[in-house]
Fold this sequence. Notes:
Elements: E1 7-10, E2 26-30, H1 32-43, E3 58-62, E4 70-72, H2 74-77, E5 80-81, E6 84-85, E7 98-105, E8 114-115, H3 117-127, E9 136-140, E10 158-159, H4 161-169, E11 174-177, H5 186-195, E12 215-218, E13 230-235, E14 246-248, E15 252-255
Parallel strand pairs: 7-9, 8-10, 9-11, 11-12
Antiparallel strand pairs: 1-15, 2-3, 4-12, 4-14, 5-6, 7-13, 13-15
Amino acid sequence: MNRSNLRIIDLSVPLDNAAKEPFPPRIEYETHEQGALQAAKILGLKPSDFPDRAAWAVETVTLTTHTGTHIDAPWHYAKTTAGKPSRTIDTLPLEWFYGNGVLFDFSDQPAGYEIQVEDFEKQLKEMDYELQPYDIVMIRTDADKKYYQENYAAIHAGVSAEATRWLIQKGIKVMGTDGWGWDIPLYNQAEDYKKNPRDGVLWAAHYVGKEAEYCQIEKLANLDLLPKRFGFKVAVFPMKINGAGAGWARPVAIFE
């Protein structure tokens, strides 16, 4: 590999106590001096036995599997997929999470805009590209630029159930967004439901996972830095958490 021609772009948000997502992490930082106390206790030594009374620095992180940039597994959407038990994040094929990236840009759309099949078709025509099975599809809304704002979870455009189904039918197994969620904001869905209670309103795109297997990446970042819309690789391997409906990830776009 010629590393002089290699560019890797980080597509994740940081885990940060200051993040304004609805379920932020809690990160406790321990100093090197505290590490010496801890190490001394474990090893039967004194803190002064360590150079400068300092040992390891340690962080304790408390978070949900959906905090920060993560990948939702079929189990997150429902107990069953197409009538069979839904798979958890630790049981999915790793081959799904490395492939050709395709970027759709909806950064010009307002918060709450619901992306439809024709929106995807229009951009594919503009790109002169046809989706291929196992492409990794990414949706740019620029919501990541507001990760530290109070209304972060309510400012993204989302994908409709019909468009999600269409992507799956194209052979897409992994699709992602830089928004807090794949659907339009839950607040919009809830208000719509209160006005007109009916089936198919709440979490509509997620529930497509009851019909067919797919994964979605939520809280991507830096999609505006991608120099082209396709013709690059994406690696987005999830953490292996037994029996979980999601796993944290640090996705990257790879250009040579």
